[in-house]
Write a structure and sequence with these properties.
alpha/beta, nine-stranded mixed beta sheet
Length: 277
């Protein structure tokens, strides 16, 4: 494909309230000595910024509240050059994610979606692909899919999906739990396997497999979003699926090696560098 691929991301926009602690607490347990920060997040916004950093021309569609959290949530998207004309201000509060991160990089996340429940697809003309997740209403995802020349769905968080929506998916990105929630899907599927990497499947047949480069895990919050965006961008840029899968694994590993969701997302040059190492 000549020039930068154009991607419309229809998805969630949150402000992440992140607490870092020595380990994740057990049920009913209180831990002290943690640190706290506020970081732009939401799977839709994360993937939009990731795609922009990887060289795509990205338009973000979603909803935020008319509150101070909205400006914080959109800050890095603005800096990253993402087109925000499709982001609406609504009466519901900006979405918030409460995130606990242990010293080993494991995390626990609870999301209060707020304004994301009012996200609409709008008009999605003149794009090469549309990318969605499941932190917005399924009706909005279906509307976006119906307009997409190529539709990529990161089916997270895990939930059952109607057959008519799955029939419109050109590329499905899932982990084991998300695939289990969906059930049977014979289309093109990128199955992420954590530290083991990822496998590309179609009709139950393995097309490609890739492993991530070795990194020290710090925070896995944005790793799946980096993987998804990189897989789509690489394919739209003309990479073969096996190569695109390897690049996506590298992007996910880089994101996991850094703190925060959006601050951790790598550039195309950083993916190239770690693959050369």
């Amino acid at each position: 494909m000549a020039g930068a691929p154009t991607i419309a991301v229809v998805g969630s926009i949150n402000l992440d309230l992140v607490t870092r602690c020595e380990r994740l607490p057990r049920p009913g347990e209180t831990l002290t000595g943690a640190t706290f920060e506020r970081v732009p997040g939401g799977k839709g916004a994360n993937q939009a910024l990731a795609a922009a950093r990887l060289g795509a021309d990205v338009r973000m569609t979603g909803a935020v509240g008319d509150d101070s959290f909205a400006d914080e949530a959109l800050m890095l998207l603005r800096v990253g050059g993402v087109d925000l004309d499709g982001v609406r201000r609504v009466e519901e509060p900006t979405g918030v994610a409460l995130i606990l991160v242990g010293a080993d990089g494991e995390n626990s996340i609870v999301v209060a979606p707020g304004a994301n429940t009012l996200a609409q697809a709008g008009e999605l003309a003149r794009v090469d692909a549309v990318l969605c997740q499941l932190e917005i209403p399924l009706a909005t995802v279906s509307d976006a899919a119906a307009q997409a020349p190529f539709f990529c769905l990161n089916a997270a968080p895990a939930k059952p999906l109607p057959p008519e929506l799955l029939a419109q998916v050109d590329l499905l990105v899932v982990n084991r739990y998300e695939l289990e929630a969906i059930g049977r899907f014979d289309g093109l599927t990128a199955l992420t396997l954590g530290a083991e990497g990822a496998v590309l499947l179609e009709g139950g047949r393995e097309l490609a497999r890739a492993a991530p480069p070795p990194v020290e895990a710090v925070d896995g919050t944005g790793a799946g979003d980096a993987f998804t965006a990189c897989l789509l961008v690489a394919r739209l840029k003309g990479h073969q699926w096996a190569d695109a899968l390897g690049r996506a694994c590298a992007a996910g590993a880089l994101a996991a090696s850094r703190p925060g969701a959006q601050p951790s997302l790598p550039t195309a040059a950083e993916v190239d560098e770690i693959l050369r190492a």
